[in-house]
Amino acid sequence: MADTMDTEKQRASAWFRTLRDEIVAAFEGLENSHDTGPFSDMEPGRFDVSETKRASADGSDAGGGLMSVMRGGRVFEKVGVNVSTVYGTLGERAQNAMAARKGIVGMKEDPRFWASGISLVAHMRNPQVPAVHMNTRMFWTPHAWWFGGGSDLNPCLEYHEDTAHFHAVQKQFLDPHGETLYPELKAWADEYFFVPHRGRARGVGGIFMDDRNTGSWEADFALTQDIGRAFLPAFVPLVEKRRPSEFSDADKDAQLVHRGLYAEYNLVYDRGTKFGLETGHDANAVLMSLPPMAKWV
């Protein structure tokens, strides 16, 4: 496949940045409007924004992005919303992984790659409010391109109605792309976000996809955009509903233990964490997903 996708790459990268801006504004709006219940007497949190750079072996430009992190808010204890566009050549280990997992041939002869995406993880101040993860991305090599990503809800205190709402919104946004798509991506999320050494899921699921290439870039990009668009209406109402709730010491303890489970998954199994560290992306940005505090029993 020749390198003929410059326009598509630019559109994808611009979309991820637009989505990032919308989410950052919405999250700061939640901080501003929290005026009842625990932590409402604190100052509203704000994102600290810094540029990230990918390190290349020869010192050449390898791309980067924006890391936006809010710490110590009255709704969000720690939340990161990162966007990046990185490029260069894949090392031998990554080449072999591409060949083994995705069946891509020719990477040794032409190991160039380009990747762009948004990654979000929110750890909440009040344990009644669920933690959440979302990412979408596009990956290109001269031999293949694909989209991936999704979102999943990670409450420490589960409420059936919250789970139902989160999944219903995902289905609403996916159904226009085919009514079989939501159950397929839900099942994929259930499998992907499973923690084998604990024998349990890390949360209540969501949607997930990888290697999305139907042959129509426009169709796959439109699906990826709708996965991103579903995030705020799926998550924000849950925050608004639960943030005024009181909680006990036992609730806070359950939150810290659940965060330990989340950290285990991200450090041991998450593909994005492994790829980011192996390809020289900013380690702080890659590990942004880790909670500010956690506990193991």
In short:
This protein has 297 residues and is of the alpha+beta class.
Structural class: alpha+beta
Number of strands: 9
Low-confidence segments: none
Major sheet strand order: 1-2-3-4-5-6-9
Name of the CATH first level: Alpha Beta
Helix content: 40-55%
Main sheet characteristics:
7 strands, antiparallel
List the helices and strands and how they pair.
Elements: H1 6-33, E1 48-53, E2 63-71, E3 76-89, H2 92-102, E4 112-124, E5 131-141, E6 144-154, H3 160-174, H4 181-192, E7 194-195, E8 200-201, E9 205-212, H5 217-242, H6 249-268, H7 271-278, H8 283-286
Antiparallel strand pairs: 1-2, 2-3, 3-4, 4-5, 5-6, 6-9, 7-8
Features:
oxygen-dependent coproporphyrinogen oxidase
Description:
The chain has helices spanning 6-33, 92-102, 160-174, 181-192, 217-242, 249-268, 271-278, 283-286, and strands at residues 48-53, 63-71, 76-89, 112-124, 131-141, 144-154, 194-195, 200-201, 205-212. It has 297 residues and is of the alpha+beta class. It has a single domain (6-287), classed as 3-Layer(aba) Sandwich (oxygen-dependent coproporphyrinogen oxidase), CATH 3.40.1500. The protein is globular, with a radius of gyration of 19 Å.
